[in-house]
Design a protein that fits this description.
256 residues; alpha/beta; Nucleotidyltransferase, domain 5; four-stranded mixed sheet; two-stranded antiparallel sheet; 10 helices; ATPase_BadF; N-acetylglucosamine kinase activity; N-acetyl-D-glucosamine kinase; ATPase_NBD; EC 2.7.1.59
């Protein structure tokens, strides 16, 4: 989380100086639960202020771009958490992280399309007249198959299929087991369901990439399909908003 100065919006330096910074785990309550998400946000705000040497009382506005914020009910949930911590005069702005990602590549102008490929994936677009559309970004169960979680989940499935004799043999089997310190694909069952958090599963993506680079066809197909899914999500947003043309701005964000 960056802490930026906004005391005089009419005379801001470009680029803006970074006053403080903090890093933490996931704040997506759909993945880690509301209690963990709230604790993460409170911790990271406190650490960013501390890193900047700024007291909480000096805060005038907070703008958060968060994964998992998909509609007004989600925004109200986060606003409720912040209102219990900051006084009423502090201005609060809550958006999906895709909105912040798009703005970061357009100097704040919400026009164009952004693709985020990380633990999850989402494509989000805006028109100049304020219309917006999104594709994917609904979590792994509902089809973020171009995401890190989707890639890793398909790799784990491929390992189990190879182990059962339902699918082709793959380097993913030995490489994933070695990376996790396991001796048999059967142990993947316990490992997976002991903590099926999205980020934990997605952390296997580098293993999949390494296997693909070493010529494993199964790993290569998983990555190829993931890229296709990401492209489809961008195409869906562009078509719905009629954004296609030479003037299309497309921002790409990788968060693995």
């Amino acid at each position: 989380m960056p802490l930026l100065p906004f005391s005089d919006i009419h005379n801001l330096p470009d680029p803006l100086p970074l006053l403080g910074r903090a890093v933490a785990g996931s704040s997506n309550f759909n993945s880690v639960g509301e209690d963990v998400a709230r604790e993460t946000l409170e911790k990271i705000i406190a650490e960013a202020l501390s890193d900047a040497g700024v007291k909480r009382s000096a805060v005038q506005a907070i703008c958060l771009g968060l994964s998992g914020v998909n509609h007004s009910k989600d925004q109200e949930k986060i606003l409720g958490w912040l209102r219990s911590t900051f006084p009423s005069h502090v201005k609060l702005y809550i958006q999906n992280d895709a909105v912040a990602a798009l703005a970061s590549g357009t100097m704040g102008k919400l026009h164009g399309c952004v693709l985020i490929a990380g633990t999850g994936s989402i494509s989000y677009g805006f028109t100049e007249d304020g219309r917006e559309a999104r594709a994917a970004g609904a979590g792994p169960v509902l089809g973020d198959w171009g995401s890190g979680y989707g890639i890793a989940a398909q790799a784990l499935i491929a390992v189990m299929r190879a182990h059962d004799g339902r699918g082709p043999q793959t380097m993913l089997s030995s490489c994933i087991l070695q990376s996790l310190g396991l001796s048999s694909p059967d142990e993947l069952i316990g490992w997976t369901y002991a903590d099926p958090s999205w980020a934990r599963i997605a952390a296997l993506v580098p293993v999949v990439v390494s296997c693909a680079e070493d010529g494993d066809q199964v790993a290569d197909e998983i990555l190829h399909n993931a890229v296709q899914e990401l492209a489809i999500s961008v195409k869906a947003v562009v078509q719905r908003l009629h954004l296609a043309g030479e003037g299309l701005t497309l921002i790409l964000i990788k968060k693995f």
